[in-house]
Structures are given as structure tokens and as C-alpha cells.
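Summarise this fold before class:
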Amino acid sequence: MEQPPPEFWAAAALAAFVRDQASWRRTQAARFPADPRNARSAAALDELADFITSLDVGDRHLGELITLEAFDDHDRFRPSDELRRVVARHGYDRTALQPRDVLQ
């Protein structure tokens, strides 16, 4: 059976990481219902994950992540501390980046 292109599993791994962050934000939103920032961030992160899974095979940003070896031996995304912070805060403030800008 032919293997899917690397960008296919890279997009799935990156989207899974983003969805994990969205799940954490939803948990925070439930803990702090008077603060709308966590719910707003969860929605923005869900939008980002959907955007990532819709990328074309061969997307240069996914290719760059593969080249930078941003995935472990089990094809899981391993973000830097800085990227983890950027993604975790995506949508939290009103000045959210567009999904494409987060990948740059």
C-alpha cells in the first residue's frame, strides 16, 4: 500500500496538537465562566485546526516543519516552547492572528 505524503500526516499531527490546546481552553472556560477569553481562544484554536487539515498536500509550511524535524519518531508534533506558548494563547486576546499567520 502506498504511504500518504508526509504533509498529510504532518497536518494531522499539527492539527491534533492544536485541538489538544483547544480542549484545554474549553476546560479553562468551564472553570472560569465569567471570563470569555478561554472560550474565544478555544473557538479560534478549533478554526486553526480546521484550517490546518484543509491545507493542500505539499503546503510549504508543513514541508518546512518536516524539514525542521518538528515531529518525533511516532509522527507527533513537538513544538518549541515559544510555539507552544503562541498556539496556547491563540485567540485569547482580541488581537488573534489569522490561521495562515500562525504557521509562519
The first helix runs from residue 6 to 31.
